[in-house]
């Protein structure tokens, strides 16, 4: 669907910006009940979500510019390694609240590899 | 080299986002966190879009806005909210591979709705993703018990 929208009505950046803006309008009524807590006692956790938004926004931009310069067959398998990077970051920053086990590592490698195969298969 | 570095940057960005969500989920509901996270993402997309594609912005037809609104509804109240909720419940390490299997569902929809025929590579990839998912889900059950 995103492909159709981008080819027929807007560029990827414009579609992303419009969708994100509309997303804020849609989510605000759902989120409003917890807002007092978000700006008060849980302010620190709100900042974490702001950083999450910055990171994912930067990721979307990087993805856009990389797809602009290279084929999806090159870009998608690289981007799909994100869960492996997550494992490393969890080991470094979240080791006190999340445990990395061997089945989890193997399962992640399988999902990443399988996803790469699906993307490659879809583009050949 | 630049596209590969940018792609790696995208992968790192998505991974880092999950870590921040894990920290944030310990104090705020995922719905509120989703709304908060959309604000910086919106400005990060808006600024280059205005700089590079302003004429396109001003010229989106109503039907295009309708389809983008539909896409936004799928992505944010559903997609990002479910992703953040999952991270809060099972952790970033277990949620990330499940979320990254999205291309598999695109392929399944393309086969079911658009009538595309799967090739052996897609079939093999599907089997591998399913095996990996089963392993992660089973591991998650043992981990929680």
Key features of this structure:
A: 124 residues; mainly alpha; flat; B: 145 residues
Describe this structure in words.
The complex is a heterodimer of chains A (124) and B (145). Chain A is flat. Chain A is built from seven helices and no strands. Chain A is an all-alpha fold. Chain B has 145 residues and is mostly helical. In chain B, 88% of the residues lie in helices and 0% in strands. Classes of the chains: A mainly alpha (124), B mainly alpha (145). The interface between A and B is large, with 96 and 103 residues.
Structural class of chain A, please? Answer: mainly alpha
Q: Please write the string of helix (H) and strand (E) elements of chain A.
A: HHHHHHH
Determine the structural class of chain B based on helices, strands and strand pairing. Answer: mainly alpha
Report the uncertain regions of chain A: none
Give the largest interface.
A-B, 96 and 103 residues
Strand content of chain B: under 5%
Terminus-to-terminus distance of chain A? 20 Å
Topology:
The complex is a heterodimer of chains A (124) and B (145).
Chain A: H1 2-8, H2 12-31, H3 35-39, H4 43-69, H5 72-79, H6 82-93, H7 102-123
Chain B: H1 2-24, H2 30-58, H3 62-90, H4 92-99, H5 102-114, H6 120-144
Helix pairs in contact in B: 2-3, 3-4
Explain briefly what this protein structure is.
Chain A has 124 residues and is mainly α.
